[in-house]
Known about the structure:
Helices cover 42% and strands 16% of the residues. The two termini are 40 Å apart. By secondary structure, the chain is an alpha+beta fold.
Amino acid sequence: MPEQNVGAISFACAVLSEDFIGRRLSADNRERLRLSIEAGQMPCLAVADALAAVLRDWARSQRAVGFLHYVQPLYPAEIREAALFSVRGEPSDLMELTGETLIMRRTPAPRYPSPGVSSSGFLFGRSLWDFRSRIFISEAFGNRLLFIPAQLLDMDNGALDDRTPLLRSVDALNTAAVRLLHIISRRDVPRFSLHAGITVRFSIALAGGLPAGALQRRVFVSELAQCLSALGVVMRTLRRVDAFRFEIGLESADILSAHNALLNFFDTLYRSAEAAGLQVCVPEANASGGVLSMPSEFFFMAGSINTLAQPDDRVSRLWFLTMVCMFLRAADIYAPLLRYASAYNGGIGGEGQPPAIVSVNLGAELTELLLRLAELPESRSARRRRISELLDSFTEVFRPSLESLTSPIAFTGNGFEFRMLPAGRLAARLGFVMNTILADSAEFLISRLIDAEDPECALLEALGGIVREHGRIVFNGNAYTELWVKEAFERGLPNIASAEDALSQIVTDASVELFERFSVLSRAELELRKTVEQLPRMML
């Protein structure tokens, strides 16, 4: 990653770099490590031992005195403040960092009452190194420590966090989408992934709740930006909204990196505020007391190509239409899961909050194109001519409509913006839901194309069928009106208004079948997730 300076702090100086690893590991171990990571497999113990020695040297050079596995356990949905991002785990001396402790540690998990999980009725866990996330140095427990991002699992490999299903779902989507794109275009796609760029607003006050002075606010935000830069968090925007509120837009990255960046942001924000004697508030409440959302824009990346960007040739047009229709199908069939991913303990559908009914605003031009796609002639020759005309005349610039600001999901011209991610929440839950439902749509299209004599014609016919069957999810009007609520009911769209009902969607038969089919979460893991998320905060 290129070096860039923010003040006196060099960019990503607190993050273990590939360059440092490359200088310290032998050529053989470097290659074995690279091949393991590319294959999505944990490096062998010999390579992990060699890497642990490199980590010890680097940590000492950064004045770190210990290390820990950095885990984020499941929490009840009521928890939505600094406690959500507090560092968990027991730090250990650097001399105890070996290949074995790098890979796995026994980690105390939160003690949720959960009969059936263990004989004592409490959760016990072990942490497993997430080798796809970057290791870094930060402050915790009064010391500089080496942070090793890790999954939190029970003793039977059941997920006790959101990172684990996110990692599993990343692989599921990649496998399905790469295969689909190869069938469509006969091109080899190195990797397919969901990318996200997230915007966060926060306010600053004195520890007693009184307004902080202008100088205090400016100094705090400047120091926050420097700390985030040291952690390699790329900020797309940093601006003041009003006298007390600021907005940070995190640069788009693959969903795992976006999750890590958001986690680092929240941890740094709350820790820096405590050190400065200030209070910060991310889950801003509106006039009715409901929790607001964090706008999050998602892009569908085939290697370095955004498949939702304005297409300029025949293949990119096919990819574009495929991705839009894949998403519409996923959003319609699995709207209850998208509501689960946006559930929080607070009002829903009020002023400034995402509507409870999941709908997608595509804008007039893109909607018109899809309607043309849904009306292909029955005659094969006429259908073939219409398909060629449609693809060759694909010159529109798809712009979002003004009403898209009132939609829970809207097409922005090169991605889909979600206004459903609750403020102060991490991106992993929405990420693993999105990955899995898109993988399902990709597998659906593969089943329609695998034996087709003319894959292009079969694809356009399948996409037209998706528009006809799932076009009900498209709504380009104001999603806050009572007229839309009535129309959505007539369309058969679910209206899941309460957080309790939304959280229950994770254990429906359809949800269990989906997550088990893609090996993202088992029924037992889903039941546990529902139990934990519906616990009152007092049970912690």
